[in-house]
C-alpha cells in the first residue's frame, strides 16, 4: 500500500513540475561570408557592448502592445544580453576579417596601435509574430586618434510567431551589424548604406 501511495505521489508531483527553461544565443550557427581582402586590417578591440537596462538580463524580454513588456522566464539567454551581443559581434567580426578582436589580451584595450570599437545598442525590440529591431550607435576609433567614425545602424527583420523566430531574427540583425563594422575596419570609411560622421 505504502509503495503504491509513494509512486502515485511522485507521478502527481512530476506532473506539476515546470518544464526546464530553454536557453538561446545570439551567436549565429551559420558561417559568415568573409570580407574580400581583409588582410590589411589592424588589430582591433571590441569594447563592452552597452544595452538598455530593461532588456539586459538573462530572461528574454518581448514587447506587446501599448508598451507592455513581457519577461519570458522560461526562455533565457545563455548570458546577460550585453555579454551575448559582445560575443556574437566578436564572432561575426572574426568570421569576416579572419582575425579575432584582442580585448581580452593584456594590451588590447590600452595599446595605441589597436583600433577601438564601441557599440551602444539603444533599442533591442522583440515583438512576437511581427518584427525584431536593433538600433545601435557605434564608433570606430582608428590608431593615432585622428580618424574616427561614428555611425548609426537601424536593423529590422520580420518574424513569425515563436521565441525561436525572435532569436533567429535578432541573430540576423547582429550579423548585419558585424558586417557593417567589418567593412569599416577594412576600408577605414563608412560602410555601404550607413550614415557616419
TrEMBL record:
<dbReference type="Pfam" id="PF03886">
    <property type="entry name" value="ABC_trans_aux"/>
</dbReference>
<protein>
    <submittedName>
        <fullName>PqiC family protein</fullName>
    </submittedName>
</protein>
<dbReference type="InterPro" id="IPR005586">
    <property type="entry name" value="ABC_trans_aux"/>
</dbReference>
<feature type="domain" description="ABC-type transport auxiliary lipoprotein component">
    <location>
        <begin position="24"/>
        <end position="182"/>
    </location>
</feature>
Amino acid at each position: 500500500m505504502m509503495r503504491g501511495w509513494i509512486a502515485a505521489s511522485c507521478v502527481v508531483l512530476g506532473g506539476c513540475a515546470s518544464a526546464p527553461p530553454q536557453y538561446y544565443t545570439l551567436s549565429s550557427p551559420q558561417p559568415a561570408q568573409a570580407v574580400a581582402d581583409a588582410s590589411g586590417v589592424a588589430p582591433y578591440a571590441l569594447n563592452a557592448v552597452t544595452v538598455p537596462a530593461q532588456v539586459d538580463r538573462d530572461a528574454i524580454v518581448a514587447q506587446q502592445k501599448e508598451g507592455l513588456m513581457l519577461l519570458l522566464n522560461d526562455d533565457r539567454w545563455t548570458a546577460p544580453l550585453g555579454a551575448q551581443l559582445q560575443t556574437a559581434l566578436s564572432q561575426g567580426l572574426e568570421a569576416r576579417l579572419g582575425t579575432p578582436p584582442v580585448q581580452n589580451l593584456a594590451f588590447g584595450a590600452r595599446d595605441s596601435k589597436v583600433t577601438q570599437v564601441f557599440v551602444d545598442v539603444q533599442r533591442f525590440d522583440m515583438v512576437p509574430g511581427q518584427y525584431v529591431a536593433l538600433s545601435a550607435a557605434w564608433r570606430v576609433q582608428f590608431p593615432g586618434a585622428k580618424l574616427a567614425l561614428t555611425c548609426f545602424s537601424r536593423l529590422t527583420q520580420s518574424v513569425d510567431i515563436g521565441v525561436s523566430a525572435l532569436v533567429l531574427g535578432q541573430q540576423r540583425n547582429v550579423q548585419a551589424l558585424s558586417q557593417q563594422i567589418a567593412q569599416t575596419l577594412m576600408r577605414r570609411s563608412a560602410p555601404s548604406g550607413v550614415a557616419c560622421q
